[in-house]
Amino acid sequence: MDYDLIVVGGGAGGLSAARAGVRGGHTTLLINEGPLGGDCTFTGCVPSKTLIEGAAQGLSFDKATERIREVVAEIAASEDAGVLRSEGVHVIDDLARFSGQRRLSVGTEQLTAPRIVIATGSTAMLPEIEGLKSVEPLTNESVFDLTVAPRSLMIIGGGPIGCELAQAYRRLGVGIVLVEAGERLLPREEPEVGTLLERLFVGEGIDVRLRTSVARVQRVGPDCIKCSMTDGSNVEVDRVLVAAGRQPVTDGLDVAAGGIELDRRGFVRTDGHLATTASGVFAVGDVTGRLPFTHAADEMGRIAVANAFSRLGRHRFDVSAVPWVTFTEPEVARVGISEVEAAAVGGRVAYLPMTELDRAITAHRTEGFVKLIAGPRRLTGNLAGGKILGATVMSERAGELIHEVALAMRTGMFTGRLAQTVHAYPTWSMAIRQAAGQFFMTTGGRDARPAER
User: Fold this and answer.
1) Of 15, 117, 361, 401, which has the fewest Cβ atoms less than 10 A away?
2) Contact 210, 182 (CB under 8 A)
3) Cα distances (angstroms) measured from residue 453 to each of 55, 61, 194, 393
4) What Rg value do the Cα atoms of the chain yield, rounded?
5) How many CA atoms lie within 13 A of 337 on its CB side?
6) 255: phi then psi, degrees, rounded to nearest 5
7) What is the Cα–Cα distance from 279 to 277, expressed in whole angstroms?
8) Which residues have CB under 8 Å from 409's CB, separation 6+?
């Protein structure tokens, strides 16, 4: 049969695009090899957050991994091929590759559609380290399959995945060595985040090694891997886990045959409307190299399909108000620009340490802070506090607190509205109001200050 829309890839972005196609009244085909759900369901968000919760609740390694299997199965059942078909999406379990302009080869079939969405996602990237492949390194795609806890684990990469798994596995009794080549953990976050997280990790018994990397690994025993570091030290561990970046899944797609260009990193090149270099073909999710988050892919899927069928104008995928969260304890959440970026546009910063929030004091969880960044509006300047440009929250439930700020940014709200809104006492979200108040008055001895480079 003929299709109005073909979606290649069944992760978050692909599922969102396929469902958006059906909602729009378009005959839609989803092509994906294997179970639907993608990285998030099977090897990403769902298993990792289940592991983190289990570790925080004091579960044993066996119980935590058992819970992972149960939760993954439950969530996967809500988005499998049967569910999609019941919603009106046609599903083919197979590989697809481009064989021409808006033409796909699937097995022996040739399928065409006037609109195609690529949503093939990403996979773990292995750095060029001598001997690494010979020791069968773990990645997020294999670590959750462990049935026996290693005594010790080296994690290469101090980004969100590395930090989350380091803390979780340490709490499950695994000895952890966390290696980050940069100056601090979570290098994309505000500097004080990495400094505080390092101190907390060391306090939990994690061996944090910054400004160094692994030069060579070799197996020296059945359960012993020797890691030679660039700083001259040697570390012996049971297993090695790589969390040092992602690479797009485009192998086998033959995108060139479809007129689709890749950027220098290998990601599918898209414009602000998520259109590729081929007419009628869009790309969403991790394969674009944009924000590598499930919620971002989900949003991209809807936008791409709306743009593909639009006759009136196209929507842009705006990353400025899309938040992200690292699920360590405390959580780290961010939206918008950083303080360094704000300094270039005349931004101001309000800073509230959690030691000054009553709810944090009552919970005895005073590690962390709230940093709000505001800047002038085009016509009214800093009247009513201007507008919110970004925020970082490091605290208990930071992933929930950040959405109030994201909403303020998405709606163009005056900063003063955050300070005016009555918040229940004592709640964690009071921190947002207390910080926002600094743009208008001295609160708790604190005033907003100019952003610094």
Assistant:
1) 361
2) yes
3) 38, 44, 17, 19
4) 24
5) 20
6) -65, -30
7) 7
8) 320, 321, 335, 336, 387, 388, 389, 390
